Description:
Elements: H1 2-21, E1 29-34, H2 44-53, E2 58-63, H3 66-78, E3 85-89, H4 93-98, H5 106-111, H6 120-126, E4 135-139, E5 144-148, H7 149-155, H8 163-173, H9 197-204, E6 210-212, E7 218-219, H10 223-237, H11 251-260, E8 265-268, H12 273-280, E9 284-287, E10 298-299, E11 303-307, H13 314-325, H14 327-337, H15 353-361, E12 365-366, H16 374-390, H17 396-407
Helix pairs in contact: 16-17
Amino acid sequence: MKRASILILLLLIPLAMFAAGQTEEQMATLRFWYHFDDPESAVTPLIQKFEQENPSIKVTPEKIAWNVYNQKLLTSIAAGGPPDVSQIKLWWQPQLVEMGALLDLSDYIAKWPGRTDVFDKIWELTEYTDGNQYLMPLQMVILYMYYRVDMFRELGVKPATTRAEFLNLAKKLTRDTNGDGTTDVYGFGIRGARGGHDWWGTFVLSSGAEFFLPGGSSGLTTADAIAANQWFIDLFRVHQVSPPTTPNDGFREIIANMQSGKTAMTIHHIGSSKGLTEALGDKLSAAPVPKGTKKYWTSFGDEENGVMAATQYPDAAFKWVSFLATAENNALWQKASGQVSINESNASGAAGRFLKATTDSADFAGVLPAHSGTAEFVESLWPTTMQRAFLGKVTSKEMMQTFADHFAK
């Protein structure tokens, strides 16, 4: 009996030593939340590649619907059960940092060999105000103007380069094409529902409005800011260059209207180019947005990966996010997402018309302020207030004061 016990003990010792020698990386299972605009896209091939290269790390993905993503993430954090890694919108960062929900990746990134292959502009835009890097870049999403080439040729017009040119162009493109007395083509598809702040920013933040002035006071209630906002409201209420459904139009509607020919122009990013070109072919092209009265502005509507501070596996989680940010793998990710790679080595000299519109817009792409109220502004305050303004329930001045009050909290 004693001899058998000794034998069992000798067998268990190597197993115990093996288990003790395991690191958290080698035993990790990572929950990964992500979103693609195209529901048919899949991240499985990248996960398989990563797990082959890192056999002791397993990635469990969960695709989250965009309309519930932010709220679901906040709820999971509050409940103490967030994913290990999640795609993060840049405007969520201030709120998440304030909550202590994101792991500071600065030290990891400083030692990461792939750092120098990520565009400097991306590091500049994603660095938080405290100088730390909480997000690992994943994809570039820069917005530009889509336009219907066939309609432009029919009227002998070209893309506008200024705000004044744009208004004249949108008016020309708004037409009754069948002579029944009813407008059936509108010059510009505005996203009045959630996500439409990018349309608003293109014309308002380029024409005198600023979230904050140099001294810290609001730049949303100046005479220039209120006038710029009024100009944007008037596109729908006065000039009627966008469809009657504008106050409630979201992503699906603005894309469907371009495909059907109900609108001649709209704003979005390269991720929509696949579906639009499948429907329209060479009838579709793109150009940078027009210049406002002060400057150009378009949205750097990026998506990053964040490692949650609550993860038990920070080293393994960083391995996963840095894997996705490495040129070869990032190129594969962009094939699925339809977006633009963050890596300089993936830049192509033979850019197509949509990639060209993206890169031509990069120098003036901007971001919303690093403020804890930005997420709420985007997710609920902007769409509800914008809809009220489009319906004539609040004035431009009242709308901008609402925004200023929100960011003064």
